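Hi C.,

You asked whether I'd gotten around to modeling the 272-residue construct. I have! Everything is below, sequence then structure, no commentary in between.
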Amino acid sequence: MNNLVMAAGPRVVSDLPDKRQVAASFSRAATSYDAVAELQRAVGNTLLECLPGDLLPERWLDLGCGTGYFSRVLATRFPAGTGAALDIAEGMLRHARPQGGASAFVAGDAECLPVRDASFELIFSSLALQWCDDFAAVLREAERVLRPGGVFAFSSLCNGTLQELRTSWERVDGFAHVNRFRSIDVYRQLCAISGLRLGRLEVRPQVLHYAELRQLTYDLKALGAHNLNPGRPGGLTGRARIRALVDAYEQFRTPAGLPATYQVVYGVLHKD
């Protein structure tokens, strides 16, 4: 497997400050991530169900592997194959590597993969690509590193995600407190011109419920997925603003609790 991975220089992401922030945030969250990853597990399992039933890859790539949970799942599902796990956050890789699953753990960027052409029959990427600004580059790289007949299966997030939290903050102030994500129309347009054949592209809302708002904000921080928007407010949030936010969010309460809705994109593309 290691001969498929090209040597990467020490400054793979150093010229991309936003990505440095993403990598640092998820690196810090490596030890707390799995304990609060209910959504990530559910979405990843749904993505697994979207894979073609006859797919038996000799080599697979877990792109944006995080703590390596789905690298281990893929290794169990495809025991005859070998896999590589890649993530932009080195802290996540340090956490994942001792737990096994993949034969190589690689620090790298989905928009510029340090991987040789035609290396894999499967690229699996669950809830990682929403952090990539240039999704067209992700698709180009997927097309490059897949072998003919290969599959690129991904889940991501689109606009409307955490709309309850966004709307509640809009009632408090004018700052961007919630991460922004591209629209499903953009995903559709980019997939259509990618050079890969589109087999599936759909949005499925996934709703989590919380007894209190602070449980949601704690989970987002523990996941490393708290606000990373450019232009986000700095410094501490005052008690009055937090109280106003809590009051605004309470308007969304249901019998199940406070909803947090994620608009999840599932895509499966094929290289002919």
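If it helps when you're writing up: The CA atoms of residues 192 and 198 lie 7 Å apart.

Thanks,
B.
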